[in-house]
Give the backbone structure.
Amino acid sequence: MNQKPRYAVVGAGHGGKAMAADLAVRGFRVHLYNRTFARVETIQIRGGIDLETEDSTHRFGPIEVVAADMGEVLDGVDVVMVVVPATAHRDIATSCAPHLRDGQIVVLHPGRTCGAMEFRHVLREQGCRAQVMVAEAQTLLFASRSMGPAEAKIFRTKNTVPVAALPATDTSPVLAALRPAYPQFIPARNVLHTSLDNMGAVFHPALTILNSARIESTHGNFEFYIEGVTPTVARILEVVDRERVTVAAALGIRAQTAQEWLETAYAAVGVDLYEAIQANPGYKGIKGPRVLAHRYLFEDVPMSLVPIAALGTRFGVSTQAIDSVIRMASILHRTDYFLRGRTLEKLGLEQLSVHEITRYVEEGTWKPNS
């Protein structure tokens, strides 16, 4: 692209609002979509979003189009940044399918586990014939919060975030399109790497459950990662992390450990996971969830832990700690996340070998079951 790409940001929550504002203050033309227009009406009236960055600078990001109409938001854009909970990926893909055009790029921030696979599968189900590229980021680039109807705050921008397209042959052109805005994005080998280097699966569900009494008694009025992670809690997170890394190894992937990731993303180091978390300045000031009906459970359990556990079962890896977290979340929310989650059956992967899955994500040559 010879000129600055035009962006659509889908989702106006904590991450979406911050990304839309960040792109706008740096001179990119931005469209913003939210399913419920009332949540973005103030942004439309004001013409943009006030953004506070990590150095306490305040700037105004003008937003060109603000709408609850997907067709209006996608019209004329080059890159579609999907910044919604992974539980909404299927619905967003369905809404996007009639409006996508050849050459557009869709990036999930993040894909959680197998997000790009699900998104492409839905586009096929919906009969979308547009030649689009679909990619996923391993995590959201920012630690951010919505601070009001038209205000957002970025606490910290990660140093690097891996991105992969499906198939992997599309990764280079996707990164080339993203580079003018976000040089922090680096290539991952394929979406198995971004999916299984999913750190939200490690940090969010177990930490939320282990702090459930504190969340209910204080309504989240504590520093989630700093006060909520004690040495004992960190040891449990380490076991969840070890199971994730072992599942990845069964698929031929050398996944980053959570401790390695903290050093890469935030330059936070320590002798163990507890010390590395405590050393991360990007976590300071982030409060806990106000309620247990939070995306750290209703998103990260079904869309992250369930597919990891399912891959473990498929390829002979024990995931007892992960299974326990899924069961506890199911009890808390009075549902069965093993059934509601992103299972291999829902992705059409249940009969595939490691070789077949790898070939699909690398080359796109295998078609999932309809």
